[in-house]
Amino acid sequence: MQVKEIRFYRASGEYGFLSNLYISQITFDGRTFSSAEVAYQYGKPKDPAVAEWLASAPKPRFCALAAHALLPYDVKSDWKTTKVDRMRRVLIEKFRQNEELRKKLVETKDSELIEASNTDSFWGVGLSGLGENMLGKLLIEVRDQVSVE
């Protein structure tokens, strides 16, 4: 049996809700954010003022762009070892707090979820298509978790 692939990237279209840039309010670590992306990126900077500045971006994609441009000395020293767990926790809350999105995620059933980014080979599959697809893997993990809750 062939597993169905669901590819997503932008926060639009049938599966746009899988994107972290999709606007869906989330409360995480006691603060409310406009999207999973903002909740995730808020944890990256050392300086709380920079985190607030990122969170104030008018659109999640601008928050992401600014966070990607942070210099190494502006990023928490343990970010590389904590970012996947933070993303996992953000995604769990995104789908726990938004029942409509939770249902849509569960409806993807056994499909393989693939972030079809051609620029990010860690969270997505990258230009080669052989990247780690960590966001897709975490979404599958979260789907399994929230489908039994």
As residue ranges, the low-confidence spans are none
Mean pLDDT: 96
The count of strands amounts to 4
The outline comes out as globular
CATH class: Mainly Alpha
Strand order of the largest sheet: 1-4
Supply Rg: 15 Å
CA(first)-CA(last) distance: 27 Å
Give keywords.
149 residues; two-stranded parallel sheet; two-stranded antiparallel sheet; 6 helices
Can you give a write-up of this model?
This protein is of the alpha+beta class. Helices cover 42% and strands 13% of the residues. Strand 2 and strand 3 form a beta hairpin. It has one domain: Tetracycline Repressor, domain 2 (Orthogonal Bundle), CATH 1.10.357.40. A two-stranded parallel sheet has the order 1-4. Strands 2-3 form a two-stranded antiparallel ribbon.
List the helices and strands and how they pair.
Elements: E1 5-8, E2 23-28, E3 31-35, H1 36-41, H2 48-55, H3 60-68, H4 79-97, H5 99-106, E4 112-115, H6 134-146
Parallel strand pairs: 1-4
Antiparallel strand pairs: 2-3
Helix pairs in contact: 4-5, 4-6
